[in-house]
Write a structure and sequence with these properties.
The protein is an alpha/beta fold. It has 6 helices and 9 strands; from the N terminus they run ααβαβαββαβββαββ. The strands form 2 sheets. Strands 3-2-1-4-5-9-8 form a 7-stranded mixed sheet. A two-stranded antiparallel sheet has the order 6-7.
Length: 232
Amino acid sequence: MKSIKKNSCDINAKSSCCSNEDDSPKKDLKVHWDRAYEKTIVEKLGWYEDFPEPSLQLIEKCYFNSNARLLNVGVGATTLIDELLKKGNKNIIAIDISDKSFEELKTRLEEQSNKLDWIIDDLMNPNELNKLEPVDLWHDRAVLHFFNDQKEQDKYFLLLKKLVKQNGFVIIAVFNLNGAEKCSGLPVFRYNEKMLSEKLGFDFSLKESFDFIYTMPSGDKREYLYTLFQRD
């Protein structure tokens, strides 16, 4: 029997974000994120944004034309896609490990969903992503910080560097050093600008960064770092 969605995430600790999930360090992440979208309505998920203002603010600074290839990593059911479509972007690529999140997003977008390229893939074991043509933008809000060990982080940045064009842009939003230690029951790795710059290397220049206080649907606050880099 399909589980009934709850109205909100249970917030059990100030240091956590939706910490009611299983804390097991070894888990199938596809199953984990599918369950998150099955159990909780999208608007009550701990990472849901009514309006993705920080991301849009940084994307505006990239001065893309409507045909730019915009890769959204760990897209979930984000409203960023809605806003990019409203702005006339014609080449949006949505990537997630969870097909349940895609079901939610496609339902909301209705016929607009036909304007996107949809890819179910795992950043740690990419298949379809390895076949992708280079992109003008790599956008990641709240995915990188779930990769805690060095090998995972190396895989992430190796894939990013493979896919981002010369002069292309990278937007990464993660918990900053004062941010939560867990999200959705999983431990997170927190960053500052210097740490991200070191991970990206000399080929990428930091164009802008700022701290941002995100208000969860529960009303709790979470501290993020938003960064914009450009490949030289």
